[in-house]
Amino acid sequence: MRRIHPEPTGRITRRLAAALLALSAATATFAAPARAQTAKEIVDRVDRLLRGSSSHGKVEMRIKTEHWSRNLSMEVWSLGTEYSLVRVTAPPREAGTATLKAGQEVWNYLPRVDRTIKVPPSLMMGSWMGSHVTNDDLVKESRMVDDYDITISFEGRRDGVDVWEFNLVPKPEAAVVWGRVVEQVRKKDLMPTWVRYYDEDGTLVRTMTFSDYQRMGGRLVPAKMQVVPTDKPDESTTLIYHELQFDVHLTKDFFSLRNLRARGG
Amino acid sequence: MSGRGSVWWRVAWRSLWRNRSRTLITASALAFGYLAAVVMVGLDDGMSAELVENGTRLMSGQMQVHAVDYLPDRNMQNTIGGDDGTNVDSLLARIDADPDVVASAPRLYGGGLVSAGARTEGGLLMGIDPNREEKVTTLLSTLDGGRAPRPGAHEVVLGSEMARQLQVKLGDQLVLVAPAADGSLGNDLYTLVGIFQTGTREIDASFALLPLSDLQGLLAMGPRRIHEVAVDVARPRDIDAIAAGLGRRLEGYGPPVQVRSWRELRPDLAQSVDLMNAWNSLIVLIVFGMAVFGVANTLIIGTFERRKEFAVVRALGTTPLGVGRTVVYEGIMLGGMALVAGALVTAPIMWWWHNAPPVLSSIVGSFSWSGSQWRPILRVEYSVKTPIVSALALFLTSIVAAIYPAWKATRVPPADALADR
User: Fold this and answer.
1) Alpha-carbon gap: A71 to the closest alpha carbon of chain B (Å)
2) 3-state secondary structure (DSSP) of residue A188
3) Which residues contact B212 (CB under 8 A, 6 or more apart)?
4) Which of B175, B183, B206 sits opposite A110 (nearest CB)?
């Protein structure tokens, strides 16, 4: 039988999703840059940069595709890596649309029809709100250091900045979609600058770049992240943080289907 | 020359009737071979026609018109005429004006979620014009309950397997969610008005049908946007020529489109049909290959019986070639008689078998093969080619069968034969 695919939007890293949904209040501080840290420790720190106990923020998502561009404004809450809630606040046509992640499940609330819908397993690889983020990206919660073997593939100056480049190869038993991940991190403040994702054939699939490093919620974070799929260089999804707080008071009850429906969170 | 030639025809004719029953039996064998070849090939053609009919009638239609780059990716944005779309009514009118086209139906596709209560399944949303669709495919005639959706009434029809998984019944409310063409998330409430059951699980488990205009609304697309026109033609056998003809007709008219025949859309089906056609040649070869030996046997016996006669005519000055020729003439005349008899018997049998095919549903139920539903009907299909090819094969058989006896006849030594040595 024929297959009809929804508009292909590509996939984005779980890290962008993690950034979106699990803004970190990790205990790690970045006051003392790396001295004698191992590659594994550095990658883990970067990984935890945008994860943590709880967070609340306001984020703008700019999606650009060949056929349309749109900006979504969103409010985001997270608790650990298990729970997160995203509510769209603009544009008006989609305001109130919300996504709840609880463990391995993703639910959407659609205000127009006033229904909550659980995303079926078959559509976990589908696009989230038309972006380059998949539902699956939202659910993944394991840490990079658990899934990948990490080595330093470059250390030195690039474009006037001292950096490390890490090469991440999946462990044989790891259930990951990538064949290889390459990540570049600035030495002076341990900020990531870019991550490149390769498929199992070694082809570059997408590139994620970080910029606009700012202090938010008492922590230095890259306030802007952009993902560009390699086969569609004119398309991108960009996340821009406008507000970010860490260690806010949230309980599991907050991440309920009832609250998913409630306007204004 | 012609006078002397006709003498040998007369001689051959008389020789044939020296042993009437032997000749009749041999001619009957050839006639039966002709019947067998034509009917078996007809049955095989009937099966392949049934295969094509069932494979295309359910969903795909026999031809499809798309935007040039729509297949194989089926990118949602690649509607006919791109973002601007096309005047659907005038495109359909243009297609319908093709004399080979019986009917056409516009379609729009979207991927999304179908949700009812706490259950949600991924589904393929298909926007159709119900009136046109039922002339091209049987999708809507397989409705197991309910009716076709009406435009503008927020009505939807689901496959039986999807309805089962969602645990919905007629009259229930469904939510359809689909990424729209403008990047937004289309979502709306619909009423389930029909459940179709094609018997093909992939279709029954994944498709949701709604009126074209309703799906255009859900996907934030205007009324000018469609992905596909499915086309039914009168003679599926000539599909390649018809598809090329429609392609030329649509060239330079409106947006660029590509016309694909079922052979391109369903290569699996095309391969099955090609295999069956190859089998046809083998049938003819086997049937007449067997007949060659029967005919040769008859003619050889006939020539042995007439050794003395051949010797006499040789002694009177006939060339060996002249003697051999009369044996070949016998073969040709035998073949001619067999052909006339075979055709007279075959024609009514073919007519009956085509128009009143035996239905084997008491023996086997309908089944699925090569991705298409089969009705257990053994219908023969006519073709112009098969009777002609079989006739040529029959003549060739009688000539080939005569060659060895004829050669033997030329070798009869007149003196020895006359002296009974």
Assistant:
1) 10
2) coil
3) B106, B107, B108, B127, B128, B129, B151, B226
4) B175
Tell whether A58 lies on the interface with B, counting CB pairs under 8 A: no
Q: Is residue A7 included in any domain, yes or no?
A: no
Task: Tell me how far apart the alpha carbons of residues B86 and B79 are, in angstroms, rounded to a whole number.
Answer: 9
Rounded Cα–Cα distance for residues A176 and B29 (Å): 71
* Structure confidence by residue, pLDDT tens digits, A187-203: 999 999 999 999 999 99
| Domains in chain A, number | 1
Q: Which of A69, A110, A124 to mutate to test the interface with B (most CBs of B within 10 A)?
A: A110
Tell me if A53 is assigned to some domain.
Answer: yes
In this structure, the number of other CB atoms found within 10 A of the CB of residue A138 comes to: 23
Q: What is the ipTM of this complex?
A: 0.74
Residues 4-43 of A with CB under 8 A from B: 4-9
Reported as type and span, the H/E element at residue A207 is strand A204-216
For A77-99, how does the pLDDT look when each residue is reduced to its tens digit (9 = 90+)? 988 878 889 999 989 888 999 99
Min CA distance, B179 vs chain A (Å)? Answer: 6
Q: Least CA distance to B165: which residue of chain A?
A: A120
Q: Residue A208: inside a domain, yes or no?
A: yes
For the stretch B64-74, pLDDT in tens is: 999 998 988 88
Q: What is the pTM of this model?
A: 0.75
Give residue limits of the domains in chain B. Answer: 2-56+270-418, 61-264
Nearest to B184 among A93, A118, A120 (CB): A93
Q: Does some domain include residue A1?
A: no
Of A5, A122, A129, the CB nearest to B185: A129
Sorted by sequence, the CB contacts under 8 Å of residue B213 that are 6+ apart come out as: B127, B151, B152, B223
Give A101-160 pLDDT, tens digit per residue. 888 888 999 999 999 998 887 777 777 888 887 777 766 666 788 889 999 999 999 999
Domain interval for residue A150: 14-261
CATH number at residue A94: 2.50.20.10
